[in-house]
Specification:
The structure is a single chain. The chain is an alpha+beta fold and 71 residues long. It has one domain. The chain is built from 2 helices and 5 strands; from the N terminus they run ββββααβ. A 5-stranded antiparallel beta sheet has the order 1-2-3-4-5, with helices on one face. Strand 3 and strand 4 form a beta hairpin. The protein is globular and about 25 Å long. The protein starts with a strand and ends with a strand. Pfam families: KTSC. It comes from Cognatilysobacter bugurensis. InterPro entries: KTSC_dom. This is KTSC domain-containing protein.
């Protein structure tokens, strides 16, 4: 999945597959996670957020989406 580079202290790239509803997040540490069944509006809100890290924690990580550690 192609990721868009972002300016954030915690995240460095975000990708989204609308057909599969999969959000892929790359952290500054190099770790990559895929979150499943994420609505497109959540991805769009993340990309428009004032703080990517805060938005990610509040609206994705702490919402209970199933995820997979890619590497």
């Amino acid at each position: 999945m192609e990721r868009v580079p972002i300016e954030s202290e915690a995240l460095c790239g975000v990708g989204y597959d609308p057909g599969q509803r999969v959000l892929e997040v790359e952290f500054r540490s190099g770790e990559v996670y895929r979150y499943f069944n994420v609505p497109e509006h959540e991805y769009l809100a993340l990309m428009e957020a004032d703080s990517f890290g805060v938005h990610f924690v509040e609206r994705v990580r702490n919402r209970g989406y199933r995820f997979h550690h890619v590497g």
